[in-house]
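Hi V.,

You were right to ask for the full record rather than a summary. Here it is.
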Amino acid sequence: MRRVVIAPSFDREAEAIGIAIEERFGEESRRNFVADLARICTLIAHVPKIGKSHHGYDTKLAGFVSGQNWLFFDFDDEKVEFMHIVNAKRDKGRLSF
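Predicted structure:
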């Protein structure tokens, strides 16, 4: 399995989502979100080619949909680096990486 690397940008974006979830649905929902996100990142580290390169966003990063979020990452033979997590409902044209 490739090593999972979390970029500071991904960490900040995931934290903001977690805070919003907790404010709306409570602490347990936030914990579930974080646990699910960790499982999905591990899955992607096992099979990074599961990500899509033609996703409509202006980036060369691979993308994977999880719930209502896109996870964007780059990978090589040793690691998968998670760069951004973005709400799938955001306007693709207004998002810059």
